[in-house]
Input
Amino acid sequence: MHPLSDIDLQREILLANLIDTMRTFATVRDTAEVWVADGLLCIYSGLPGAIFNSVVLTSVVATEEELRLKFDYVQALYRSRRARWSLWLLEYLVPDHLLAKLPEILNGYGSKLVSRGIGMYARQLSHVSRPLPKLQIERIESPASRFDFSYVMAVAFRTPLSTFLDVYNSVDYWQSPMQGFVAYSANRAVATVCIMPASGALGVYGVSVLPEVQKKGIGERAVRFALEQVSAQTGLKTYVLESSEIAVNFYRRLGFEPVTEVCIYNETR
Output
């Protein structure tokens, strides 16, 4: 067996951190369930909507038949619970000839592409290259900070507030390894970020900034602060994330480099 290349190792760390992050949703609600099948991780949050019912491919898929068998299993699983699901796919796990057919295949399961992004990796953060705004950044520890986190996320992602409160207003969620932060400017919540220390890396999730204060360095200040805090606490200095296409240049400025494409499909029927 040949040793893994640097990019293969980086992809494996990215995938492992994502899997650990998805598992944290299963700690939030008593009705949540987790299934680990051959090359699959399926999370059922106890809610019917697709956004928090996540499916992750955890190993390379070789053939279309194998891929369809996995989706048959997933569909039956969530239908038995009258819930929809979302697929988080790191595209290096699927050969090119299958990637081209993937939208058609998933359409047969009622799933549509809703987001395309980039998986990224950094061995260290870049130096700050511009003045960043002064912010009050707080770790999520109180009911007020949990609500503020949910509110900023809801506005930034144009999602009903109740959707985020169902998960992020839970005390149990923030007692998991996941650590959340809310950034305030003039006593107003303006940005969020979550850091997941797992599988030898710090995963960056839940980054959002209110639309009216974007492109002012607020997101960079919040991400740097959160990573510095959790890195000092854990000793971890390797960083991974899944970026939207529009945010790739932002994360490049922080020192991240692409290692794989990532796409998200939601079941819509």
Remarks:
- Residues 24 and 66 are 28 Å apart (CA to CA).
- The chain has eight helices and eleven strands.
